[in-house]
Amino acid sequence: MKTKRLLKISALFLIAFFCFAGNSILSAEDQALSAPDYADSASWMFLPEDSNAQAADIFWVYPTIYVSEDNWNMPLDDKEAMAKAKEVTSKYLDMFEDNGNLYAPYYRQASLKVLSASEQEKEKYLGVAIEDAKNAFNFYLDNYNNGKPFILAGHSQGANVLLEMMKDMFASEQIRKKLVAAYIVGWSVTEDDLKEYPFLKIAQGPDDTGVIITYNVVADGFQDKSPTLLAGAVAVNPLCWLKSDIFMPAMLNEGAVFFDDKMIETIIPYYTGAQVKNGALVIPKIEDESQFDMLFGPGVYHVYDYYFFYENIRKNMKQRLRAFLQ
Q1: 170-180 pLDDT, tens per residue?
Q2: Which domains does the chain have, with CATH numbers?
Q3: Pairing between strand 217-219 and 275-277?
Q4: Residues 6+ apart with CB under 8 A from 220
Q5: Whether 39 contacts 139, CB under 8 Å
Q6: Is 201 exposed, middle or buried (0-12, 13-18, 19+ CB in 10 A)?
Q7: How far apart are CA 318 and CA 326, in angstroms?
Q8: Where are the alpha helices (DSSP H) in the chain?
Q9: Which pTM value belongs to this model?
């Protein structure tokens, strides 16, 4: 039975604790030669056993789990890294399997050290991750989709990669018309993005389709401490699915979800209220943060962007899919 007891919380993507080294030092040129082949099922973390089991698909891109100081990008022969990616993704399975057939590719994500890299290096090494995601998505469209609607979901680097993929590919109306919604969480969609790519639309309610849901969770006053909160960011409040800056009370929170070290799930209804403020999703500051994984320091709840609103997101995916199918 699910309890309301707050357990010692393990991180959403556990970047701070997944401290392992890559198996080999690869140059960008070598990594290009080792690009994943998405015709090979081994390049996919999750593929559905029955692609017709559900009416829609979910295409998920996992967050940063690779922290090697030796490699800029995660080699796909690193079994430990792949296992960590699968461990993180397993925490979303209740959300995903309730709403669609899950397609989750492995990709050569950039190491955490890219955050301190030059802009030129960031573009180069994040470009490897973005190219993999695009190739995986194209393969999915050509071989697995079969005309079904799909949901995009990612967190942190995964959300960044999905956003760049959408900028490059979603000018196509043929692709856009299948999009139920894109959950670009833990990364910023900015006003400049929306102006430059007018086919990107932000959600205006709980059941519009073909739209983006995006936010970054912080305590008020800590907006400038979050490295994923960019200038001009827009945010959608998952307690009302609006950009409104009105505070939404905790009574609207259907449940935060956490996992202990044995992957036992705890759900806590009415966990927190939230408000859109200065481009961020602001929640009341947690008094004792020692039980949390504060990756980016006090007041920045990046690790828990999905967790704090897990049940709302799970039900919203279903609500938008229902609206799409009708």
Answers
A1: 999 999 999 99
A2: 28-237+310-325 (3.40.50)
A3: unpaired
A4: 277, 282, 285
A5: yes
A6: middle
A7: 12
A8: 28-33, 79-90, 93-97, 119-143, 157-169, 173-176, 191-196, 310-325
A9: 0.89
